[in-house]
């Protein structure tokens, strides 16, 4: 019972932080969490999380329902195929993550515009540079999260606390 309560509270705190970051900085924490959890948690749990959070996020942001969910599903298929070409644990494993995040920002705005107005949006050079910078920041946050989780769960010294 406590676990369900904690998950519910964490869900709404994440929604609060996500909507704040999207409105103020146009930065998505949701995409970083999804890419970090991909193939590291139970698939069923991840699909439930993505479905519920994307529906709630779509209703909070006043975008058509399913926009974030469809974009995430398409991009997860793309990143899985990219990780077949470029393994996840190599130095260049962050290139598919960058492509994933870059396409996420473009496809969410394009899908919203297409579903609301039946018009494909025009992207200027300034908006593409802004998306590029947001994608670089997102990949940087993703790298920090990956390093933090690897330092917590080292396979070699599972029972030893590391202080360095």
Q: How do the strands and helices of this protein lay out in sequence?
A:
Elements: H1 2-25, H2 29-37, H3 43-61, H4 67-85, H5 94-117, H6 125-152
Count of discrete structural domains: 1
Structural class by helix and strand composition: mainly alpha
Order of helices and strands: HHHHHH
Strand content: under 5%
Radius of gyration equals 17 Å
Number of strands: 0
Average pLDDT works out at 87
Q: Helix coverage percent of residues?
A: over 70%
Describe the 3D structure.
By secondary structure, the chain is mostly helical. It has one domain (22-152). The protein is 75% helix and 0% strand. It contains six helices and no strands. Helix 3 (43-61) packs across helix 4. The radius of gyration is 17 Å and the shape is globular. It starts with a helix and ends in a 12-residue tail after the last helix. The mean pLDDT is 87.
Short description:
By secondary structure, this protein is mainly alpha-helical.
Which key terms come to mind for this protein?
single chain; 164 residues; mainly alpha
């Amino acid at each position: 019972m406590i676990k369900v309560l904690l998950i519910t509270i964490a869900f709404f705190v994440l929604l609060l932080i996500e909507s704040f970051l999207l409105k103020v900085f146009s930065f998505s924490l949701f995409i970083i969490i999804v890419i970090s959890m991909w193939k590291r948690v139970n698939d069923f749990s991840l699909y439930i999380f993505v479905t519920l959070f994307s529906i709630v996020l779509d209703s909070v942001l006043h975008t058509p329902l399913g926009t974030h969910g469809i974009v995430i599903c398409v991009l997860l298929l793309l990143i899985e195929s990219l990780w077949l070409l470029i393994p996840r644990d190599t130095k260049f494993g962050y290139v598919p993550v960058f492509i994933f995040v870059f396409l996420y920002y473009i496809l969410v705005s394009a899908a919203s515009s297409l579903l609301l107005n039946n018009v494909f949006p025009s992207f200027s050079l300034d908006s593409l540079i802004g998306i590029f910078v947001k994608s670089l920041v997102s990949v940087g946050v993703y790298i920090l999260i990956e390093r933090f989780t690897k330092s917590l769960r080292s396979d070699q010294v599972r029972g030893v606390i590391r202080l360095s």
